[in-house]
Structure formats: structure tokens, C-alpha cells
Amino acid sequence: MGIYSSLVEIVGKDRVSNSAADLYLYSRDSGAQPPGRADYVVLPKTAEEVQKIVRLAGSEDIPITPLGGGLALSALVVPQRGGIVLDMKRMDRILEVDEMNRYAVIEAGVSQGALREYLKKNHPRLQHSTPEAPPTATVTANTLIQGHGHISPRYGVNSDMIGGMEVVLPTGEITRIGSCALDRKWFTRGPMPELAGLFVGWYGTTGIVTKISIKLFPKPAFREVMVFQTDDIDLLPEAIFEVMYLDLAEDFFLITQEKPDWMNHAFLVVIVSGHFKEEIDFKKKVYKDLFKQFKGRKTIQFVEDLHPALEKRFLDVPPLAALAADFRQGGGFQYTGAILPIDKVPEAWRKGIEIAHRYGMICSYVHQVLLGNSIMFGFNYSFNRADETDIEKAQMALADSNRVTLELGGMIWKGEKPAQQMVLEKMDPNTAELIKRVKGLLDPKGIMNPGNWERE
Amino acid sequence: MRHEEILHRCFRCGYCKLPGDYSDINCPAYLRYRFESFSPGGRMWLIRAWLDGAVEADERLQEVLFSCATCNNCVEHCIFPKFKDQILQAFIAAKEKMVEQGSLPPPVRDYLTTLYKHGNPYKMPQKKRGDWAADLGVEKYANQAYLFYIGDVGSFDERGVQIARSAAKLLGRLGASFGILAAREGPDGNEARALGETELFRHLAEQNIKVFKELGVEKMITLSPHGYNAFKNDYPELGGRFQVFHYTHLLISLLTGTGISEQPDSGPSRRVTYHDPCYLGRHNQDYETVRQILGLLPGIELVEMGRCKADALCCGGGGGNFFTDLVCSGPETSARVRVREAADTGAEILVTACPMCTVMLEDAVKSQNLEDRIQVRELSELVTEAVFNTGRYHGHI
């Protein structure tokens, strides 16, 4: 029996395609990377179907690439060597919300928007960490690429919020990790050997996660935004340190945009929340006082008359971040997600402006502070998908900002293939070898999303 | 191709697939197929690829394009201003190009051919167009206040005929002055236009406009929101400028002031939920008329579905799919999802104001075995029951 027929036998005729139109679409994403090549697209509904497909791929020696919302923008799940794309979005059940123990068990295809709305309707006192991505992004894929969300400055990155997972291994076994491996509760992934780490940050090269448990957090009744602005970039590390040291912010990000002129400042956007009005008023007062007294005074000013549209944009969860894709009226957007130490922000800030100008772009930044230890510094590039030159410029700008990130001692979040090459080249050879060994151990046939985390 | 210049600007963020609260899939074609190709963004990219010669207009691409139910959810929820206004027009333009090339799924080809040959998709003789009203005493149009335009479904579909009769009888009992065209009525062409058969649409529209003008029509009401949409939005540029209303617009003015809402409540209320037809709601921004009518009725309690008004999930019947069936089969069709959503409100009646929606939803109730939980009514039927048949109303109308 051929591969197509075997896939049809597993999931049914309506859920398999090898038509040119579907393959075209599943061979590319919205970022600036060149297309890959898919041979089949399959839409599984259950872990058992995923298991059968993985076993088939293993026996036929063909690659298999799992796809969530497809919004990483760096072609992480664009197949590089053909094979099967597994679009996981039919696995869209929210299986359980344990309110007392504050976690939700969901299938891999559940979107951010669906979980958020479900919690709002059924468990309004709880929330999950929602990334600054369209609501079609899936919760599971975001945690697996070490994404972060609107409460990450307080609670950490989203991959730290995994309480358990179900994984189909490249050899076909369905495995559970965390307390769910012992009992029916999915409340914690330890204490036990950190097996979740075998699947977080690997971009699907070590297995296909079919379910996760995600931690839920209190959803305070009151939530407000405060914006401060400065033109002195060198003040930013200390300002970030102080905001985070006070430990009163729910979310904290930095933005700027060279045009229009009124946006051409560094804005520190601090979101405070609380169960009580008095609590939020207190937090606002503390932060206002902080910057009143900060350094030479008035160097970082409170923005008194924040435009209502901006206030909404800052408070929206998720925000309409995708709007940046149309800055050049061309539908393309990608960024280097530099995970930087806080003290490197001024240098990165200046270098990023240089890079944008080098390629004729207007600089625009959105950076999110992650706890107090690092910042996700976004070197953002919009481009026109209808203009090959514009796409090449975006690729070159990405290469430059990837290089700057590594030069500054940073790491690259969900980097595209060339970025992964840079990281592997710079990495301690023993670490790179360990990555290779782990992959080889779990995926001896090398069928899982090949091309990622491997040297060319 | 018209609107070609916007195709590459789609980022495929996917807001177009969702309702305003992001809770679920709100695009009928994507819900049915679940391949990204069938989402508005996927369709946008594939049209670009087709124009660039990267993919061919094969069977699958035809299916991708012609499964669009033209429900306007993508236009409503896309986050890119101005760009969004052209999304659906771009899809229709691509279908036009496919029609020009003769690249059509067989059911679409058959629908358009039958419409052209027979003047209706049911292969019925034109002289039978007025048969639905044979025993009702409905007058032919001759300078009454309104022309009542019925359309193909109301004239020929078995269930549609019941709805046409119900609406005509109700309006008559309430004292409306209207007449029908009977054998002089032609198809409104809304579905032909949505399927990209622009020339056929133009031909049908010009025939209708000629008849309307000959008869001195100034004001018209339509049974179907689809016809309402065509007459209101597309006929003017072909010279057909009339005062166009959906029949519910006349109905509310007839009911208002009758005192029906002041009748003493003499029994338990019936819980009703309302399905917004896309061509009344999202295409023409009328979300309130039917709700106001329901608010006037004695013994009716309106409960809303989670997805309503601009967020309503389409029944899947628009864009010609009522006839071509491209998104209407399988367990996850939007009509089936919609009736489950309606039943989950606890309503015993699912009311709508469109003959196509009524048929689609009734079929879905049967296939979902929900007959014991919920029944589908077209609005005029519910109004008739509530006002005249329940014994609650004791007024003079």
C-alpha cells in the first residue's frame, strides 16, 4: 500500500491531502524564509492516529513535521526535506480544568483564543499566560518553543508553566511526563527527571506533543496600564531593574517606533493588576514615585495623556500585534527574538536602529521583560512579500541582528535555520554534541522535522 | 484580476477564521475542511500563487475557491483596515476568472447552467413561479405599496414555499399592501454573482430591472436576505434604484402599535434563539429588526447563542453552497455546529429570517438527532404562531 493510501486508512480521506494547492500552502509561512517542500498534509484527531502516522513515517523513512498555528514566522515547521506535515489543529479539545489545583489539560491544537475564552466563561478567576501573537496561535506549540505571555514578567516564560505532557515518541510509543505518568492528576511535572526538557525547545525534532497540562494563574479584577517615556536609552537597564525589583508589575514591555515623531521615544509600558482597587492604586503610586525620584529626576516621565486607543492596545490580551505585518503594505513580518541580559539593552537598541537604517527600514521595537533576568528584545522587520528585494533585505537584516544578539552574549529565540546554524557554531562543542546525541537517541531514523538543530 | 493588488498583503494571522471573542472557528469552509487552504488567508495566498503560475486551477483549487460561503465573517474580523473591505471581493473576482476559464466544480457548473437555461435552479417551468400562492388570494403586483419579491427558494423549494406562504399570509393579515410578480419574477442573481458568474448576474439583473420599471415598482420587500442584498447593493450600479426592504422591515412597522406586546402573559414562555442570516446581518448590518420583533411577541423569551450578530456562525448555505453542497456534508459542517450551539442555549425554537438558513438548519437538526430538543422556525411562522395561533393574543389584528 502506498503512503497516501496508508494515511487515508489512518485518518480518513477527507483529512489527507497531497494536492498541489495544499502542499504549496503548507510549504511556507508568513516570515521571510524561503519555502520548503511538503509531500503530504495530514490532520489527525487523536494521539493514536498520530502514533500510527509516526510509525508509518518511520517504516517508510520519510520526514514528519508537526504544525500548530504556524505563526512562529521563522519556518520552524516548514518541512525542509519533504514528507508529512501534521497539522495538529483538529486536536482541539480542552479536556479538563482543575480549578483547585490551577491547571488545564488540553490537546495540542487548542488555540490561545479558545482557551482564553473558555476560561473566561467557565473559570473567570483564572487565566493562562497569553502570548503577544494572534489568537490562532496554539497554546502547546507556544510553550514548546519557549514562548512568553502577558504575565511572564511575573510568573516566567510559558514553557515553565507546563505541568505535564503526553508525547508520541519518534519510535511510536505514547509517553506521559509528570504526575500524569503516575496518576490521573496533571498538576506537576516533577519531582522526577526533567523529561519535559527533552521536548521543549527542540522544534518537534524529538517527538510530537499531543497533550499538555498548562498552569493557570489568578486573574485579578483590576488591571491598568502606566506608560513612562525617556530619550535616554542608557537609563533603561537600571529602570528595568527597579521596576522588576519592586515586583509589582504583571506585564512590562518597552516599545518605540521612529515614525510618527511622537512615537520616537523609549516607552516603558507597565501593566499593574490587583484584586482590590486600593492595591492597584498603591502599585501605581509606587511606580510613579519611583520615576519621580529616579536618577536626575524627570529623565523618565509619566505619560499623563495616554491616547485611549494606545491604552486599549496595551491592555488587550492578546494585542493586535499582527498589525505590524502591514507597515510596508506587504504582508510580511519577521523578527529576531533576542533573549538578552538586561544590561545589554542600550547597545542592542542602538545596533538595531543601525541595522534597520542599513536596509532602508524604519525602526520599530517591542521588547518584553522576562522576570528580572532577561528581556526578549525584538528586532522587528516588516517587508513586502511581493517584492523579492524587500524579502532579501529582511533576511539580511535578520542575519545582522542575529549576529548582534550573539555578540552581545544573548540567545536567539525560535531562530530560523540560519540563526540555528549561528548558534550551533558559537555553542560549546560538547553542548552541540549533546544535542546531537539526544536527537539521535530519541529519533534514530532522523525523521522528525529534520533540518532543525543540526549542523549543515 | 480585480483586487489582485491586495493578495500578497494577507499575513495569515487568522483573525478572519474566528468570531470576535476568538472562541471557535467561524469560517464555514475552514470548519468543514480544516486545511489551512480553506481559510480566508490560505485562499488569499493560493489565489496569488495561481495568478503567479505556481499552482493550477485544478479540482482542489476550485474546491478551495467555490466553498467560500460569502458569509463576510472574514471581512468583519480581519484586523487590517481598508484591506479587509476587499477580501470577499477578491475571492469573487478570482471565481470570476475561474468561470471565464471554465474551471468549475461540477456542482457549480450544473447550478449555473440550470439557472441560465431554466431561469431557476430547480428546472421548473417559469409559468409555475407563482404557484406557491395559488390558493392564497395574493394579488399580482399592480401599484400596491410594495412589490413582494419571493425568489427561487420561496417559489420552488418545498420548504421555501411554506415560508413564502407563511410570510405572505402574515403580511396580508396585518394589512400590508403588496403584490407579487408570479410568472414575471426572475432570479435575483445574488448567488450567481457570489459564484463569479458576473455576466449571468448582469443578465438576470437587467431582466428584473426592466420588469420592475415597466410595472412602476418603487418599493419592494423580499422574502430572502439574499435577494434583499442583491437589490439593495448590486442593482443600483446597473440602473436599478428602488427602495428595498427585507420583509421583516415592513413586518415590524405593522406589528408596532398593535398592542401585542401589552397582552397579559397567560402562560409559560417559549425560549427562542435567533440565528442571524449573513445577508441580513454582516452584509447589511441589520441585527436588531428581528430581535425587536421577537421582543414584541407574547410568550417568547429570547436567549442568545454565544455567537450572534456580527459573530454569528453562518449556516453554510451562502455563496451558492445551498445548491452546490460544497460545505454541507460531513459531521463538522457549520449548520450542524450551529444547531448544536442553538440547542445548548436551552431554547426550544431556533428562529431565523431566511428561507435558505431555515432549510439548512432544519436539515442539520435532523442529522444531529436534535428534533426532540429544538425546532427550526422561519420568523413569519413564529410570529403567526405567537400572535394568532396560541390563543394569547386578544386584540383586533
Sheet with the most strands: spatial strand order of chain A: 15-12-14-13-17-18-16-19
The biggest sheet of chain A, with number of strands, parallel, antiparallel or mixed sense and barrel status, is:
8 strands, antiparallel
Mean pLDDT of chain A: 96
- What is the chains' assembly state? heterodimer
Low-confidence stretches of chain A: none
Distance between the termini of chain B: 54 Å
Short description, anyone?
The complex is a heterodimer of chains A (456) and B (397). Chain A is an alpha+beta fold.
Give structural notes.
The complex is a heterodimer of chains A (456) and B (397). Chain A is built from 13 helices and 19 strands. By secondary structure, chain A is an alpha+beta fold. The two termini of chain A are 34 Å apart. In chain A, helix 11 runs parallel beside helix 12. In chain A, strands 15-12-14-13-17-18-16-19 form an eight-stranded antiparallel beta sheet, sandwiched between helices. A five-stranded antiparallel beta sheet of chain A has the order 5-6-10-8-9. Chain A has four domains: 3-89, Uridine Diphospho-n-acetylenolpyruvylglucosamine Reductase, domain 2 (2-Layer Sandwich); 91-218, 2-Layer Sandwich (Uridine Diphospho-n-acetylenolpyruvylglucosamine Reductase, domain 3); 222-315, Alpha-Beta Plaits; 321-415, 3-Layer(aba) Sandwich (Vanillyl-alcohol Oxidase, Chain A, domain 3). Chain A has helices spanning 3-11, 20-25, 47-60, 112-122, 139-144, 152-155, 236-246, 277-292, 308-315, 345-358, 388-407, 417-426, 429-442, and strands at residues 16-17, 40-42, 64-67, 84-87, 94-98, 103-107, 126-127, 162-168, 174-178, 208-215, 217-218, 222-230, 251-257, 266-274, 301-302, 331-340, 364-370, 374-384, 411-413. Chain B has 397 residues and is an alpha/beta fold. Chain B folds into three domains: 4-104, no CATH class; 109-253, Rossmann fold (3-Layer(aba) Sandwich); 260-389, Rossmann fold, CATH 3.40.50.10700. Helix content of chain B is 43%, strand content 8%. Chain B has 17 helices and eight strands. Chain B has helices at 28-33, 40-51, 59-66, 73-77, 87-101, 106-118, 151-156, 158-173, 190-194, 198-214, 225-234, 247-255, 289-296, 321-324, 334-344, 355-367, 379-389, and strands spanning 146-149, 178-179, 219-222, 243-246, 270-275, 300-302, 349-352, 375-378. In chain B, the strands form two sheets. Chain B has a four-stranded parallel beta sheet with strand order 2-1-3-4. Chain B has a four-stranded parallel beta sheet with strand order 6-5-7-8, with helices on both faces. In chain B, strand 7 (349-352), helix 16 (355-367) and strand 8 form a beta-alpha-beta unit. In chain B, helix 12 (247-255) packs parallel to helix 13 and helix 15 crosses helix 16. Chain B starts with 27 loop residues before the first helix and ends in an 8-residue tail after the last helix. The model of chain B has no long low-confidence stretch (mean pLDDT 95). Chains A and B meet through helix 2, helix 4 and strand 16 of A and helix 2 and helix 3 of B.
